[in-house]
Amino acid sequence: DPDRKTEVVLLACGSFNPITNMHLRLFELAKDYFHETGKYKVIKGIISPVGDAYKKKGLISANHRVTMAKLATKNSDWVEVDDWESCQSEWLETLKVLRYHHQKLLSPDVTNSLPDAVPLTKLGRKRKQEPNRHHPIKKKNQSPDVKSVPQVKLLCGSDMLESFGIPNLWKLEDITEIVEKHGLVCISRAGNNVQKFIYESDILWRHKNNIHLVEEWITNDISSTKIRRALRRGQSIRYLVPDVVRAYIEKNNLYSPESEDRNAGVVLAPLQKHASDSKNQQALN
Amino acid sequence: MKSRIPVILLACGSFNPTTNMHLRLFELARDHLHQTGRYQVIEGIMSPVNDNYGKKGLVSARHRIAMAKLALETSDWIRVDPWESEQETWTETVKVLRHHYNESLRVLQSKKEFMRNKHATERTTGDSLSCQQPVLPELKLLCGADFLQTFKTPNLWKEEHIKEIVEKFGLVCISRAGSDPSQYIKESELLAKFQHNIFLVKEWIQNEISATQIRSALCRGLSVKYLIPDSVISYIAHHNIYTEDSERKNEGDLLQPLKLHNTTINPLND
């Protein structure tokens, strides 16, 4: 049925420290992109702030980061914040978060705990339609209404995609499962290196049809790092972050030279986790 | 202790529509002037250009003013002023500057009168300080680096106007990382002479939301959320302001300043 569109949920993982207008733009750009293809319908956007256990330098408490994201999306009718990831006591691989949200969509009544976030089998794979077929072949282990299962795609900027190449930051099998079973939506500035990066990686190249590249023509480089820097210097961040977020930051005096020093010298959780594992010395290329 | 010079920032432009970037210019300029230690920015004024300017795609000033007002709802120091848009025809920027400067003097004068009358009836020690001669405010033109470059465009500006702008008023020019307007200033004798009155502010957080791109996105049914204030988005949708038709307005026409200056400079042309 060519009129049946594939439903998509966009999942953005990150520090959101703090959330900025640029983060929010990613969702808008991705949604417009998918709608313009005529093949997809974006039904939801999810912001999943990383847990404190990530140990990134300058990362303030998840409570504040989640609250700010919620304030920022209060007047959005399709983007919401999910704090499951931030509530975990240990840092979670992005793939696990993807699986969790995918499971949640399949069976919304079941609350999944960490051990239950099992790897996907063939359930999540999009069925390729042969030109003259109207019905997908039904297999016994498939849920009855395969087309109505929304896909959860990881929404990110080119920096996250390119971080796949940082040694020990990602597990190769995780990257593979992300692009094979879920998909990536990568927003990048005009004149970026993303296409080249994909070209140079066999795994990414193999699944390039599931990596959607969206070009952002309106330059909008509002990074959280720059926001925190401006705040430390007493400079205005108005019109770069939603006003409610600005007010919240001000009221709670969230960012300072002290907060920026948090986790200084601490090894980032994924690096710590993967460093000992010799299997992960495999390269992306 | 030397008191700070009060400054009013005036931004002239199409504001077609007002974007987050326009609003950022004010914030950046204020921060910069404050950090010099010499100035206190007391007000920001947005002055949308007259419909008569003749720029392609320029929608009615009524809408542009309304949108600017909505955009500035949350600001406690920036306001939109309709004077320029209400004039019979397009007004040279220097005249807009003069008008607002005179207005600020008038306001200052009436404040002084008020305080003088107040002290005639209530004599309190606390008020004696405000009886002192307040420092005269300075009015500065707030703009982007591209604006500075337009000084070069033939027939767009009168030389004496540029001189008055940089000499009597001053410029606060916001540029993005990577561009270097100081080079341009050095190359111009006029600008170099008054460079002490040209404040260059670098915008490190790139945020180049051009109104043209916004209009283009709107025409294509694409989202502009988080690029311009929500209230402006609602207004645009409600009044269906930007369409293919609106984009074609003034198509093929010369900008008003070019029309004006063309005739004065080339009186012999038919």
Automatic annotation (TrEMBL), chain A:
It comes from the Eukaryota. It holds the Pfam family CTP_transf_like. The gene is Nmnat1. The lineage of its organism: Eukaryota, Metazoa, Chordata, Craniata, Vertebrata. It is found in: Nucleus. It is an enzyme of class 2 (transferase). Belongs to the eukaryotic NMN adenylyltransferase family. The keyword Metal-binding does not apply. This is Nicotinamide-nucleotide adenylyltransferase.
UniProtKB/TrEMBL annotation, chain B:
One of its GO terms (molecular function) is nicotinamide-nucleotide adenylyltransferase activity. Its cofactor is Zn(2+); Mg(2+). Residues 10-216 form the Cytidyltransferase-like domain. It holds the Pfam family CTP_transf_like. It comes from Ptilonorhynchus violaceus (Satin bowerbird). The keyword Transferase applies. Signal peptide: none annotated. This is Nicotinamide-nucleotide adenylyltransferase.
